[in-house]
Amino acid sequence: MDRAGFLILVVLLLGAMGAALLLIDPNDYRDDIEAIVERETGRELSIEGDLKLSFYPWLGLELGRTSLADDPAFDSPEPFAEIERVYLAVRVLPLLRRQIELDTLVLEGARVRLIVDENGRGNWEQLIEATADDEREPVERPEDEEPTEVGITLADIGGVRLTDAFFSYEDRQTGDRYAIDPLNFETGRIRFNEPVPVQSSWTVNLPDDMSLAGNLRLEVEFDAAFEQLLARNLNLQLIARGEAIPNREQSVSLRAERINLDLAAGRYELPELRIGAAGIELLAALEARQDDEQLSAQARVDVPEFDARALLARLDIDAPETADPDVLQRVAATMDVIWADEQLDLRTLNIALDDTTISGRALVRSFEGPVAEFALSIDAIDLDRYLGPEREDEAERIDGEPVEEAEFDLPLELLRGLDLTGEFRLGQLRVAGLQMADMAADLRAENGEIRLSPMQANLYDGRFEGELIFDVREDTPRLAMRKALQGIQAGPLTEDLLDDDWVTGRGDVAFSLTMVGNSVGAWLNSLTGEGQFQFDEASVQGINIAYELRRAQARLQRRDAPEREDDVSDFARLTGSFVAEDGVIRNEDLRGESPLMRITGEGGVNLTDMTLDYLLTVNLVDTLTGAEGRELDELRRIPIPIRVRGPLDDFNISVDLQSALMQLHGEQLREAEREARERLQQEQDRLQQRVEEERRELEERLEREQERARERVGEEVEGRVRDLLRR
Prior knowledge:
This protein is α+β, with helices and mostly antiparallel strands and 727 residues long. Among the domains are: 1-131 and 152-191, no CATH class; 462-665, no CATH class; 670-714. 23% of the residues lie in helices and 47% in strands. The strands form two sheets. It has a 34-stranded mixed beta sheet that branches. The longest helix is centred in the last third of the chain and has 70 residues, at 657-726. This is AsmA domain-containing protein. One of its GO terms (cellular component) is plasma membrane. It comes from Alkalilimnicola ehrlichii.
């Protein structure tokens, strides 16, 4: 259509409007309009207010109170929709320039009520069906006919004003009801490429007497193609109220000075966003990009320092009881967040927790599981400050009166789905009293098995290496530990761990243990495994073996006990191994060496009732000093049994010196018997020798007498022969 034709059309239109203004009263057609709507929709339309038309300088329509009845099937006494006033007008003269200038669009008192019945059908569906049945076939243009371009542009809109609106949604299947009451929305003058002030307020009423009130203010600027959008001075305030809301009321604020949206290029920029809630504020800068169906974004997030305890109080959450009440008061964080290829990358992560700094990065490859990688570095942290204070029931457990304890409420399904790969590096760590430095640990969680391996650290002038495996594939978790301590100073270690340096010296300890259960008690009762230890230049606190021997000797001899000495026994070397089974730790090969004595030992510790039962055997190899020592010289190299029995924190020591002395006296009797037998044998041998000697003397005398007798007989025979010869 050319310009002349358009002008003629406008003049004719103005003439028709003038005639209509003089000749037509729109209220005369009210009944007809109501009848048509009821016929087409099956619902009653009630126009209670006036219908007003204006023609110059504005061509406008104003409609008074009007309502549309609900679907009769829903048996609702209230209308489906109603409105108090609608006003819409276009300026006439700009139409001559092919421009549309609208006055402020006004909707006052709009009410819309949506209902879903017990069968899941909505009260709006019948309207959609009625409208669909009445759709006309589109008019087809001849193929050789080109579309006519009038060239009209939307030049100006006075604004949009929605006041006192009401929208509700009722679900009769669940009994839930939601409502926005009221809703107000208003803009200033709307022109392309010029700032448009926007403000809105609303209150959303939720089930369980909860509500969410909001207030929004900003300026919006956009081009005619709606491809470039710019928002300025965004200020959003939200207030949630209700019994389920901490302290019955919480507020959230969101502020941004500028938001750039380039819809054509798919580029979005938010240079500075401030989010405030519960007394803390989060700062963020965001950039995003949309390429086809892929969205990528990066943000810088800064959480200034806040008091975590105060935050929990504002959220009506009890702060955890900690050994140090001053912790959790200084928390801050900064990080770079990148979203790309459906992965979340947290870079340059820095968290400040009281006196601790945590840095590193994390990559979430998939939120199903999740599947993630991380690397964290901690400068120094004292975990004991964050653990709960020791309770009386814990003391009762040590005293041999175990208390009933709750089972761990572990999220087993979540733990089984974890697919994590990470590493920890800690400069200084304190936990359970133990102090470690330069700790490193690698974590791998997969298929329900969480493994910390290897684990390494320097502690107490020595080295720690090991691994920890937490297996949740079954309903009852299983914990396995394999650890080795080399060259550690046992005194400071036990002092920090147990508040008592009950063993000192440089030592090596290795063990492999497993525990099964859903509570600490179950873990202790199921402890199974083995280990070994060796300590050089060691001292054992709580028992002075030499003093116990002196005291037992004095008691046996009915003398006063010797003066009390320090409860400590020194050893050049102390070695042994142990086997744990079902919470009972057995040791059968304890060996201790010192210049004074040699000891062996066997016994065990029952972790179920925290008691021990141990038998030491002492062999003195050197002389004790002092008068009492001289009296004990007779016990040298004689095994002396010492029984250690009772609760771990209050055990009894008894020395069976009487049996040692009986053994000693029995040995002395046996020695005397041996000596008597030897003397008897010697006397017998002497007598036998004397008898033999006397016998030999008699034989020799007899032989001499016989020889002399023979000589005499010979002489007599010889004499008689001579006599005979003389005769």
